[in-house]
Write the structure tokens for this entry.
Amino acid sequence: MITVLGASGRTGRHVVRLLAARGHTVRAGVRSYQRLPVVAGLGGSPVVADLAADPAELVDVLVGCDVVVNCAGAADPAPEAVNLIDRDGAIAAIRSAEAASVRRYLQLSAMFADAPDQGDRTVRSFLYAKQVSDTVLRRSSLVWTVIRLATLTDDPGTGRVSAAAHLIGPGRIAREDAAAVVLGCLTEPRTDNRGFDVRAGSTAVAAALAALD
Ligand SMILES: NC(=O)c1ccc[n+]([C@@H]2O[C@H](COP(=O)([O-])OP(=O)(O)OC[C@H]3O[C@@H](n4cnc5c(N)ncnc54)[C@H](OP(=O)(O)O)[C@@H]3O)[C@@H](O)[C@H]2O)c1
């Protein structure tokens, strides 16, 4: 079973729909009961999973789950907001996954989160928040993958990306393609215990992941 956190988000919805369509049993985690209708009909079972709530509740949600995909993110780039969700909330989810004996954990991160000083000044707090939670995940007991996404768009997916430990310069990627990367990671052992940058490109997702150095 796979639990998707932030399932009501623009990328989260693609991830739930794609994983369910490929036969995975999916739990669609949303931050409150009010958000449950947003994930209805995507193919996952809705569940409340608030990254800012009592971590003990998150542990209960994640018990029995093999894989967690964290697609959650703050709506607001203000430091208080990103520190609450992208740093502390993400860390709480990682710790809860460990406590619930989850095996594999995929985190949606951002290009330049591993070197925030080189990223866009206007999103630096966000990059620092991601850097901290990505580091906690890397040092956790989980089989981890940090997917450092370029700027997300709602363009239709192409099924083709460029992925590498580090890509030069910024870029964009369709949320639909980001979801295809999540799916691809589940069957590509080269993505175990690895972080990588990904943006739109010309290589089919599976081939791009298989070629990670
Ligand atoms: N936007 C970009 O260009 C960009 C670039 C690189 C990486 N990323 C990362 O990629 C991921 C997906 O981005 P996106 O733009 O598709 O996301 P999005 O549409 O903004 O969705 C964010 C999701 O996080 C959820 N969330 C917020 N607070 C939460 C909480 N306390 N507990 C649980 N869930 C919570 C939201 O719930 P509600 O629906 O209830 O608000 C929503 O489902 C995020 O991790 C983001 O940081 C984004």
In short: The mean pLDDT is 97. The pocket of NAP is lined by residues 5-6, 8-12, 30-31, 35, 50-52, 71-73, 75, 85-86, 89, 108, 110, 149, 151-152, 175 (CB under 6 Å). The helical segments are 10-21, 55-62, 79-99, 124-138, 175-185, 205-210. The CA atoms of residues 98 and 142 lie 7 Å apart.
